[in-house]
Design a protein that fits this description.
This protein is of the alpha+beta class. The chain is about 20% helix and about 30% strand. It is elongated, with a radius of gyration of 23 Å. Bound molecules: copper (II) ion.
Length: about 150
Amino acid sequence: VSQSLDRNRRNLLVLVVVVIVVSGVVVFDLSIIARPAVTSLPAGCVKPTDGFLIIASNTGYNDSVGHGAPSEAWPVINVTEGQTVNIVVCNTDVEAHGFQISHYYDGQIESVGPGQVMHVSFVATETGNFQIFCAILCEVHPYMQSGMLRVSAS
Ligand SMILES: [Cu+2]
C-alpha cells in the first residue's frame, strides 16, 4: 500500500511539474504573439526641425523602461520660455497610448493609435516643470507617467 502511495505521489509531482512547464511555455508564447517586434516606424514619424520626437512603444516613451521610469524622469524635454514647442508623437505599439503635458496639453484626453502619428505644437508661456504622461490605460501605463517638460526662463 505504501509503495502505491509513493508512486501516486511521484505521478502527482510529475504531473504538477509538467503543468507548470507547459503553462509557462504557453504564457511565454502568448506574450510574444501579443507583442510583435516593430521593424519600422510609421510614415511621418520624423523628428521635426527644432523639435522633439516621442516614440510610444511597449517600453514606454522613448524607452522609458530602460531609462529608470517611473522613478526617473523620462523623457525630458528642455525648452526656453516663449519658445514654440513642436513634438511629433508616434506609436509603434500594438495598442493605443495617450500623450498629455500638464498645463500645456491636457485639455482633452489625447490618444495615438497603433501605427499613428500625432503632431503637438504650443508656445511655452509659463516656466517650470510639467509632467508628460499617458492618460489612457495601457499595458505599460506606469512607465508613461514620468515624462517632463522643463521650461526655463528666457
Ligand atoms: Cu497608458
